[in-house]
Amino acid sequence: MSTVSPETADQHLSADTPTTTWQRLSARIIWVDLAISVLSVLPAAVAIWVFDIDATGGQIWPLIGLAVLGVLGAVFDMVRWTFTRFRISPGYVELKTGVLLRQHRSIQRDRVRSVDVEAKLRHRMAKMRVVNIGAGQQSAAGESALSLDALSADDALSLQDDLLNGAAAPAEDPRLAPDPDQDGLPSPQRPDADTDAQNDDDQTAVAPPREPIRVFARFEPRWFIYNMFNIWAYVLALGLLWGGLWLLNTVGIDLYGFVVGLLDWESIGWVGTVLIALVAVGALGAVGLGIYYFTENWNFELARVPSGKGTMLRTRKGLLTTREINRDENRIRGAQISEPVLWRWMGASDTSVITTGLDEWSMSEPAAILPRGPVHRAKEVAGQVLGAPENPFHAHLNPHPRRALRRRLWWATALALGIGGVLTWLALIDVVPYTTIWAAAAFWPMSLLAAVIAYRALGHTLTDRYVITRSGLLNRATTVLQRSAVSTIVISESLLQRRLNLRTVSTMTAAGGGGYDTPDIDRQQSVEFAVQAAPGLLDPFLVPDK
Amino acid sequence: MLCRSGFYAGKMNETALQATPSDSRVISGHDSSQSARSDLSALSLRPPAHRVERRAVGWWMLQSVVLSVPILAAAIVAYVLWEAARPWLVLAIVAASLLLIVGVAVEPLMRYRVHRWETTPEAVYARSGWLVREWRAAPLSRVQTVDALRGPLEQLLGLSTLRVTTASSYGAIDIGGLDQKTAARLAEDLTEITQQTPGDAT
């Protein structure tokens, strides 16, 4: 392995003459690491020398722990930098890393599906970027994207251009001037939608991808309200409280005592105490999530940008940590909007694209194209992204037969009876008191209500391009999937479904979640639906009805 | 077969034309559209052409035995050794016995009636299941791999499972209970066809 000086790594990676020497990551990592070491030692040093806190006392240990962790992390990072080399050759992206366990990973360039750029605050202050190169790996296979942590910002951008645009030579083209219709709120009619998608092809022969062809959505400050209410609010609040308690404790303020002295808890009783605690903690968490929404989605922009192979759907966002995610539009097979049941009244919805080559389970949720927001905007944007002349998310969905409701009511009742049975049995053998059986009685109407909600969520239809299906209790998901993307079609029928003359049709696809169910269609219509969902596939297996 | 698919193809075109967004009748609600039904509604899926081997019944029986006998044995041993828990263990023994009886006497026969398969130059089509029936069809143009698999019990009976996978993680079609020679030949033939069929890279 040849040793390359850090200067070489800082040279630009030109698009038409790919460098084939092994390179190092940006040498600025060393400086960042040194700065982090100093910063992490600082609190302990200040505490000992400025505030004269006894270094053997218990209070100082967390600070010393922080210092040790910070310095160790920085040292490991420097070691990692020393032993890491990467190479971008015409055919491959290669990365060698590791001290004891040497790893050599390579990705064929024509298999590169995504090149995402990310920067934490420390990267941004040092003008560095982390480049994650994905090759459509299956998360189940334990593969992960190849991550270059970190390159200088310029190198990262030119590497991204290089990988996404292939060998396309950079050229100026007046046609790539920014679209005047970029106000972020395009009219819902959008007659240009289809022409957009078609014109993209000839535009993409020319390279520089920085200017968007079309901007679909921008940061919406008002959407914070949709992002405040979430079960994570409690996790966040408890973390904040624990951290606050500990921090204030080290400087001698007793937060616990303060809260105890705030109200007369004796007279409120434990039920009131629990309620107040739930509300207060929940409110704290909700505020935290609201702030998190701003830091995470600041400067959010969803845009279509040209690339060497076609067009890409690009997301940029972040206040402290910035992220840029690019998705190849040739691989988009549909979109999904899901509405969580508890927040449906306010219209909260999550929007994602159904595409191949993205890791569905990744923490950064690359398939999500919008933050949680109002469902009418989600439908608009998702429809524009798909580019169909008529927005498939506005299509009228056919309701499912009433027997589908009966099936759900049966299951709800059976579940309540099952729970009641188990509780009765447990009460009989003196494991739980008899009063708990009432829990099953209370559960029954709730499960019946859930059955009705689940039934009302059902719907399906077909357009000339898409299979559209909606279902789900906790998350009502509307899925729009290209009919041509359906690879396997599955019709299934359980015992109860057979009695009720119902069937479930599943359309399996290589993209997104792998398969999408349309539960409880009338038996006869299930055949029609399946036949049309996957054009031509079932034709040879059909016979006239007897 | 060919004749039938030709006959149908003509009708398909008509109905495909009707399936525009503006015309949602094509598969609209059961109650509203009795009169406006398309020709498709006069059709139903026929079962795939071939049954699996008779020996498959034995295979499914053996599978149930291998699954439930250890549970039953464990429950009986516990019943003998652990006096205090006998009221609970009676339940376990009854449940395990039921599982065994149903698994040996009912499930294999029901499966033998349901399980069928068929391959054409364009597609693989199979029906399976007993409590939940499943019809699965995949076009060969989307098929990624075709393998003939043999578990230890299948080896014993000279059987084999044909596994056809597509790019979808849920799209695989398993056809169990085939004769080993049949499965091997099918795997070879289908692999050849899939290599000739222009696939779409996904």
Structure described in brief:
By secondary structure, chain A is of the alpha+beta class. In chain A, 40% of the residues lie in helices and 24% in strands.
Write the layout of secondary structure elements.
The complex is a heterodimer of chains A (546) and B (202).
Chain A: H1 6-10, H2 28-50, H3 61-82, E1 85-88, E2 92-97, E3 103-108, E4 114-119, H4 121-125, E5 128-134, E6 146-152, H5 153-165, H6 193-203, E7 214-218, H7 224-228, H8 232-250, H9 255-262, H10 265-297, E8 301-307, E9 310-317, E10 322-328, E11 332-340, E12 348-355, E13 368-374, H11 375-386, H12 402-428, H13 437-457, E14 459-462, E15 466-471, E16 475-482, E17 486-493, H14 495-500, E18 502-509, E19 515-522, H15 523-533, E20 542-544
Antiparallel strand pairs in A: 1-2, 2-3, 4-5, 4-10, 5-6, 7-8, 8-9, 9-10, 11-12, 11-16, 12-13, 14-15, 15-16, 17-18, 18-19
Helix pairs in contact in A: 2-3, 8-10, 12-13
Chain B: H1 2-18, E1 43-45, E2 50-51, H2 55-81, H3 86-114, E3 116-119, E4 123-128, E5 133-139, E6 143-149, H4 152-157, E7 159-166, E8 173-179, H5 180-196
Helix pairs in contact in B: 2-3
Distance between the termini of chain B: 31 Å
Q: What is the tally of beta strands of chain B?
A: 8
β-strand amount of chain A = 15-25%
Mean pLDDT of chain A: 80
Q: Your description of this structure?
A:
The complex is a heterodimer of chains A (546) and B (202). Chain A has 546 residues and is an alpha+beta fold. Chain A has four domains: 6-110 and 134-165, no CATH class; 178-219 and 298-394, no CATH class; 226-297, no CATH class; 402-541, PH-domain like, CATH 2.30.29. In chain A, 40% of the residues lie in helices and 24% in strands. Chain A has helices at 6-10, 28-50, 61-82, 121-125, 153-165, 193-203, 224-228, 232-250, 255-262, 265-297, 375-386, 402-428, 437-457, 495-500, 523-533; strands at residues 85-88, 92-97, 103-108, 114-119, 128-134, 146-152, 214-218, 301-307, 310-317, 322-328, 332-340, 348-355, 368-374, 459-462, 466-471, 475-482, 486-493, 502-509, 515-522, 542-544. Chain A has a seven-stranded antiparallel β-sheet with strand order 6-5-4-10-9-8-7, with helices on both faces. Chain A has a six-stranded antiparallel β-sheet with strand order 13-12-11-16-15-14, sandwiched between helices. In chain A, helix 2 runs antiparallel to helix 3 (61-82), helix 8 packs across helix 10 (265-297) and helix 12 (402-428) packs antiparallel against helix 13 (437-457). Mean pLDDT of chain A is 80; it is low at 1-18, 137-142 and 167-209. By secondary structure, chain B is an alpha+beta fold. Chain B has helices spanning 2-18, 55-81, 86-114, 152-157, 180-196; strands spanning 43-45, 50-51, 116-119, 123-128, 133-139, 143-149, 159-166, 173-179. In chain B, the strands form two sheets. Chain B has a four-stranded antiparallel β-sheet with strand order 2-3-4-5. Chain B has a three-stranded antiparallel β-sheet with strand order 6-7-8. At the A-B interface, strand 14, strand 17, strand 18, helix 15 and strand 20 of A face helix 1, strand 1 and strand 5 of B. Strand 17 of chain A pairs antiparallel with strand 5 (133-139) of chain B.
